[in-house]
């Protein structure tokens, strides 16, 4: 459903992605793994039309979307949950959810509360008072109320306790079962292996490895080479 081919992109005069190709199929969770500054966020921003794409193809649902605005891409079903989550801290959990709801979405507030019990418990709390894990769940639930076909998550496990990370992994599986594909940006190999059908490793703006979900000697080598600090 998403196809990036030979993408060159950056900001201003700087080129960050030099020749990046990847794809996400219908119903897949695909991970993009790489160290700080490798170009992961820039890849997601390029898909949403938030960076300067200079060359290459961006196709979604068979359509060339390079000329579309971010708003038009969102309307087609692309949705990005950024690393900083962008929660409205002065609004309650419920208000955060309601302001994002799209009338076209099949996801309702009741669904959000069914899949994210903690959000139901905290529905009257202000966004700014939530823990990191609760904020991440709110960001994901809010994105779902937009009715995405492809959800892009930028390092959802970052800074969260292992039990919360497990909950997020479970939520990603549920989202896939509900027919939404996921492009997951991560630095945590365990999380990628737990949920993904396929896994790409990015370094210096290009894909250096593509593999299946299983840990293998080859993947270990790649991780040692490109992810070890
Ligand atoms: P991280 O985990 O640190 O976010 P990343 O793999 O997501 O890493 P990017 O955020 O895509 O990496 O950044 C890639 C490079 O692009 C970095 O060198 C960064 O400094 C640069 N960069 C990111 N955003 C901008 C911007 N708005 N303007 C200029 N340069 C940027």
Structural overview:
There is one protein chain. The chain has 229 residues and is α/β, with parallel strands linked by helices. It has a domain at 1-77 and 151-159 and 183-229: 3-Layer(aba) Sandwich (Rossmann fold). It has nine helices and ten strands. The strands form two sheets. Strands 6-7-8-3-9-10 form a six-stranded mixed β-sheet, sandwiched between helices. Strands 2-1-4-5 form a four-stranded antiparallel β-sheet, covered by helices on one side. Helix 3 (93-100) runs parallel beside helix 6. The structure holds adenosine-5'-triphosphate. Residues 11, 14, 16, 34, 36-42 line the site of adenosine-5'-triphosphate.
Could you please say which CATH topology of one domain applies here?
Answer: Rossmann fold
- CATH class value of one domain: Alpha Beta
**Helix percentage:** 25-40%
Q: Return the average pLDDT rounded to an integer.
A: 91
**Coarse shape:** globular
Estimated radius of gyration: 17 Å
Beta fraction: 25-35%
